[in-house]
Amino acid sequence: MSPREIVALRHYLISGPDNRTLSDATDEVAFADIAHASCLGIEPSELAGRSVLLSLSTQLVAGITMIELDGVARRMLLCPPDVDMNYAADLIADAEIDAIVTDTPERWRELGLDTVVTASLPLHPAAPAAVTHATSWLMLTSGTTGRPKIVAHTLAALTGAIVGDTVAKDAPIWATFYDIRRYGGLQIFLRAVLGAGSMVLSTPNEAIGDHLARLTARGVTHISGTPSHWRKALMNPAIGSFRPNYVRLSGEIADQAVLDGLRNAFPDASIGHAYASTEAGVGFAVNDGREGFPASLIGSTSGIAMKVADGSLRIKSSRTAHTYVGRSAPALTDADGFVDTGDMVELRDDRYYFVGRRDGVINVGGLKVHPEEVEAVINQHPSVRMSRVRARRSPITGALVVAEAVLASVADAGRTGVIREAILANCRAALPPHKVPTAIRFVQQLDVTASGKLARHA
């Protein structure tokens, strides 16, 4: 492939209006300036053809570095700030890393690499390196425990759902609760770059009210997050001043309660949920206001093939990752090219509903319970904003189903007994007996992981 044929992110920096920016809680950078400047402590050309790990404290510097190195580096491994350093040496070996770009060099120098490059703001003038490589984008899976897998994407696969999509017109201002070094956040970052928009980045440990106020002040029009992100946002009074035009959910099951909550909060917005994963890429979007997805999507449409086998959704498309990377990497797809997502679905009438993860089942006396399907019933109660279902050991059945719930309003704090009985009545009406919680405890909050998902192993 000749350099002329390689499309890199920098080629999109000068499209759209002149006032396009990338910002976080403390800094703002014009996209046009990135085309003629650098945040790196060396000439970008010195990383040409290298396999580079990005480990940066802020998403802003990480995003600028991605733009600088796409088309220059052979590989980029995007490491979120919470990467477990116990696995750092393995990740470096598996991804054949020979250079690290970081703002915490002391964290990485002990691993023995000769090239550890610092990156920081402000930008300084620098000639951009020649575009010579179709960079392989490496991302880490967001598994709950254990060593993360490395997933390899091409820029074409990452942008397969973006190129030609008309939703991001009129120079939107994008935001996401995700970190852009994770698949869901990277999708929004790429939409902003390719779609001639601006982007407002999230900041770690920023209070949700402050974050929402900042999004409002910046005039954010398009935003995405997990259902857990949105449930937390809906509990904050600052949501009342935020008026986006486009709201999307992904990363977890979007149950009817959170979709209805968002519709009530944003009556004039386009609200939908998308199915995507780091391995399978973007599968589809649902915009009819209902949980689940139409059964008509199963089969082959618009270059995406989907099927259900053994209750699990399988996807094959040009948007999927092309491989796992590593010395003992498993196969990413089956013999027919399908990614087994591990997300379990059930067909009811003409619609498929997500019921949970295959590896998250609670075994109650030999009967299976997906926590998410019980949570969906609990969350339907108007006094509940979010819930978490877990297993409790039982000497008789092996496990029992128990639940924690966060009230939607402090005004309901004195009615927990009545609310608990109403929730249990709803569960008994909607679920078989072994799925009904044996106990419900009300809590002030439920933890969310760094990837924005409900923390199930806390």
From TrEMBL:
Lipid bilayer topology: Peripheral membrane protein
Question: Cellular component per GO?
Answer: membrane
Localisation per UniProt entry: Membrane
Q: Which GO terms describe its molecular function?
A: long-chain fatty acid-CoA ligase activity
Give residue ranges for domain AMP-dependent synthetase/ligase: 117-311
| Pathway(s) of this molecule | Lipid metabolism; fatty acid beta-oxidation
Task: State the Gene3D superfamilies in the record.
Answer: 3.30.300.30, N-terminal domain of ligase-like
Q: Which keywords fit this entry according to its UniProt record?
A: Ligase, Membrane
Q: Output the superkingdom of the source species.
A: Bacteria
Q: Which PROSITE patterns match?
A: AMP_BINDING (PS00455)
Q: Which InterPro entries match?
A: AMP-bd_C, AMP-bd_C_sf, AMP-binding_CS, AMP-dep_synth/lig_dom, ANL_N_sf, ATP-dep_AMP-bd_enzyme
Q: Which residues form the AMP-binding enzyme C-terminal domain?
A: 373-453
Its chief place of residence is membrane
Q: What is its EC number?
A: 6.2.1.3
> What is this protein's name?
Long-chain-fatty-acid--CoA ligase
- Taxonomic classification, please? Bacteria, Pseudomonadati, Pseudomonadota, Alphaproteobacteria, Hyphomicrobiales
